[in-house]
Structures are given as structure tokens and as C-alpha cells.
């Protein structure tokens, strides 16, 4: 009898241990970020010839608010299956981000093992990884995208659909990346196709260096409907103007190189240089902007705008410094962009000095403040933030104050 009872107890313990082992093999998490704050922008165009300041409650100043689900399963032999389903949202009105797509930030499934990490689905490319490591984009997001050529260099993150995304295992600190996104057009592999590659060297020491390259090909249609795998191409005139090129032609190319150096005592220097081209841009639109009524025009479409109809090329320098002391992170950055316009007499420039400070309240919560200014020269200003471009002035100032919580 005692032997029988002992056997049953052992069997029960073995079953419990087996359940624990099975649970340890699979892991699913719900996670997210909630962030919002007060935003002030001066000199926003209100009507032709009129300008006014704007004060409001803005979501996504520090980074975009989001809700996501991610999980991994241990398949044995060092192989894991993984998935990420993530949607962006705006806290001030509860709307979905990414044009209303419920899970527009990322939807991927993949396998990870000794040979690297392979992911399939919709996500950002490696340009975003390099920018987050080394540029001002992840440090003072709200004031960086417009200054980076209306995000032509993908510094604040652009997504592509139908993506195959491969990252190699790290070898002596070196990681390689390769991306291919299908255009999915019958009879033409190049129509709407995108591809990218990159590498990053980071051993965890004071020095790190990386680069990313990206190119997109024109989709089958242009205008309001973006049929390219590259969803960011909708904001580029070179990819969405019917009279420029044909489906399958390369319409945007970008290269970003970045690095950092930890000086010591909490000080880190970082920076990126990027170059973006719109190869299909071939026609001029006058020799200079017409500033008689306004210093602003819709970026990515009009003449003499960032990413616009005659903007063939832009080069961008983004240099910054982080200083960590106690619960404070103090940040400074300078973004300078130079724009080439077809047959124009001058190059356009955007210059944006930035200052920021984070105060860490806990492991998950911080408060922040960001101050920025931008001046445009020989081109229309895209505005420092998404809340409006300046009207009768080529100079704009903005301030953001808010709170961020991670869960």
C-alpha cells in the first residue's frame, strides 16, 4: 500500500514538473507604452498671409503610444518561434495610428536560432535600428522627422509590407542584416519591390558603428493609393507622381551611417550622416521658392519642399550628446540638412538645434521636456513638428512637456 501511494505521489510530481517545463517553453506577453504631453508651437500658418501659435495636448511626443502582444516558444535544439503583433494609438483621442491600421506598427512571425533571426510580415527596416542607436530620433522624436528631409532617410521609422527580415547572430560584436519586401504584382517582381541591408558593430564597449541602406521601387499605381511594399514611399514625390518613371523603377534610395562613443562620467557622443536620393526627379520648378505669401508648402509634394517634386537629393548630419547624472538624462542635438533642387540656383537647408531632459521616476515611468527650433533657407519649411509649418516666417520654435509609462 505504501509503495502504491509513493508511486502515485511520484507520478503526480512528475506531471506537475512536466507542466512547468511545458509552460517554460512558451511565453506570451502583453506590453505597451502610454505617453502624452502639452505641446506648443509658434508661427503656425492659419490662412494665406496669417500665422498663429498652437497649444494642445499631443500624443506621441516622446515616442508613439502602443499596445502589443509578443511571444516565443522553445522548439528545442536552440531554435525558437516568435511573433509580434503591435498597434499604435493616440492617447488624446483614442484613434489608431498608421492610417487607422489596427496593428499597423508591426505584425511578424519568425524563427530564431544559431543561424540568426528570420522574421516575416510588416515592420520597420534596419534604418530605424541605426537611427535609434545613433541619431537624435529616439531621443527627441517629435522634432526630428521633418528636419531629416521629411523622413526621406527613414530616421524616425518607416514600415514595409510583405517583408522578409533577416539578422545574423553577433560574431565578435558584428551583426548583419538583409531585407526583402515583395511587391506582389503578377508578371513583375520589381514593381513595388523594396530591399535593404545593413550592419552594426557593438561589443558593449564605448565605441559602436553601423550603417543601413534602403531602396524602394515604384508601385503599380500612384497618388493616394500606395501599392508599393514600402509604406513610407507615400510621402515622397518621386514614388507617387504619375509623370515620373514607370512601375518597377527605383524611386527612392537612402544610406545612413552612424556611431557613438562613451566618453565616460555619463557622457555619450553620437551622430549619423545620411544621404537620400529620388532618382526619378528630373525636372526643375523655377530657380527659387516664391515667399511672397508664405514660407510653407506641403512637404513631399510641392516644389522646393523636403521630398518634393524637384528635390532630387538631401544629405543630413545629426550630431548629439547625452549626459546621464542620477535620475536625469540631459540631451542635446543638432540636425543640419542640405537639399538639392533640380536646376535651382541655391541649395535649401534646414537647421534644427534641440535640447531635452528626462527625469526617471521609476523603472517604467519618466517625465520629459523637449525644446527645439528650426530655420529654413532657400526652401519652404516643413515645420518642426507635425502640428503645422510656419506661415510668414522661415523660423519656428516648439516645446513639449509630458509623461511616459511603459507596461
From TrEMBL:
Please list which residues make up the signal peptide. 1-24
**GO annotations under biological process?**
monoatomic ion transmembrane transport
Instruction: Give residue ranges for domain Porin.
Output: 16-376
Q: Which GO terms describe its molecular function?
A: porin activity
Fetch the Pfam families from UniProt.
Porin_4 (PF13609)
The UniProt entry, under CDD domains, shows: gram_neg_porins
Q: Which UniProt keywords apply?
A: Cell outer membrane, Ion transport, Membrane, Porin, Signal, Transmembrane, Transmembrane beta strand, Transport
Instruction: Report the domain of life of the source organism.
Output: Bacteria
Q: Where in the cell is it found?
A: Cell outer membrane
Q: Which GO terms describe its cellular component?
A: cell outer membrane; pore complex
Q: How does it sit in the membrane?
A: Multi-pass membrane protein
Q: How does it assemble?
A: Homotrimer.
Supply the name of the protein.
Outer membrane protein (Porin)
Q: Record the organism.
A: Janthinobacterium psychrotolerans
Amino acid at each position: 500500500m505504501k509503495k502504491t501511494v509513493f508511486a502515485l505521489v511520484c507520478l503526480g510530481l512528475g506531471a506537475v514538473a512536466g507542466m512547468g517545463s511545458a509552460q517554460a517553453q512558451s511565453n506570451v506577453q502583453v506590453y505597451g507604452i502610454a505617453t502624452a504631453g502639452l505641446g506648443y508651437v509658434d508661427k503656425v500658418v492659419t490662412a494665406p498671409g496669417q500665422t498663429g501659435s498652437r497649444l494642445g495636448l499631443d500624443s506621441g511626443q516622446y515616442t508613439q503610444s502602443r499596445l502589443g502582444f509578443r511571444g516565443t516558444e522553445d522548439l528545442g535544439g536552440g531554435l525558437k518561434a516568435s511573433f509580434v503583433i503591435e498597434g499604435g494609438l493616440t492617447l488624446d483621442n483614442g484613434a489608431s495610428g498608421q492610417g487607422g491600421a489596427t496593428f499597423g506598427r508591426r505584425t511578424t512571425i519568425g524563427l530564431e536560432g544559431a543561424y540568426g533571426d528570420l522574421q516575416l510580415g510588416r515592420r520597420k527596416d534596419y534604418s530605424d535600428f541605426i537611427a535609434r542607436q545613433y541619431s537624435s530620433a529616439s531621443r527627441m522624436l517629435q522634432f526630428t522627422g521633418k528636419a531629416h528631409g521629411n523622413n526621406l532617410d527613414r530616421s524616425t521609422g518607416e514600415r514595409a509590407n510583405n517583408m522578409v527580415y533577416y539578422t545574423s547572430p553577433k560574431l565578435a560584436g558584428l551583426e548583419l542584416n538583409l531585407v526583402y519586401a515583395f511587391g506582389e504584382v503578377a508578371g513583375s517582381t520589381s514593381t513595388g519591390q523594396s530591399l535593404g541591408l545593413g550592419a552594426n558593430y557593438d561589443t558593449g564597449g564605448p565605441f559602436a558603428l553601423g550603417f543601413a541602406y534602403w531602396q524602394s521601387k515604384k508601385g503599380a499605381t500612384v497618388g493616394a493609393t500606395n501599392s508599393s511594399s514600402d509604406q513610407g514611399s507615400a510621402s515622397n514625390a518621386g514614388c507617387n507622381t504619375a509623370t515620373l518613371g514607370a512601375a518597377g523603377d527605383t524611386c527612392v534610395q537612402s544610406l545612413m551611417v552612424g556611431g557613438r562613443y562613451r566618453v565616460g562620467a555619463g557622457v555619450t557622443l553620437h551622430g549619423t550622416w545620411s544621404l537620400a536620393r529620388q532618382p526619378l526627379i528630373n525636372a526643375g520648378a523655377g530657380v527659387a521658392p516664391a515667399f511672397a505669401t508664405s514660407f510653407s508648402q506641403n512637404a513631399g509634394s510641392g516644389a522646393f519642399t523636403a521630398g518634393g517634386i524637384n528635390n532630387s537629393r538631401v544629405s543630413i548630419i545629426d550630431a548629439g550628446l547625452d549626459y546621464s547624472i542620477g535620475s536625469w538624462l540631459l540631451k542635446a542635438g543638432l540636425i543640419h540638412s542640405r537639399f538639392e533642387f533640380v536646376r535651382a540656383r541655391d541649395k535649401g537647408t534646414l537647421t534644427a538645434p534641440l535640447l531635452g531632459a528626462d527625469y526617471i521616476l521609476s523603472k517604467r515611468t519618466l517625465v520629459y521636456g523637449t525644446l527645439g527650433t528650426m530655420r529654413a533657407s532657400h526652401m519652404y519649411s516643413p515645420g518642426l513638428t507635425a502640428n503645422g509649418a510656419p506661415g510668414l516666417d522661415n523660423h519656428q520654435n516648439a516645446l513639449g512637456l509630458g509623461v511616459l509609462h511603459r507596461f
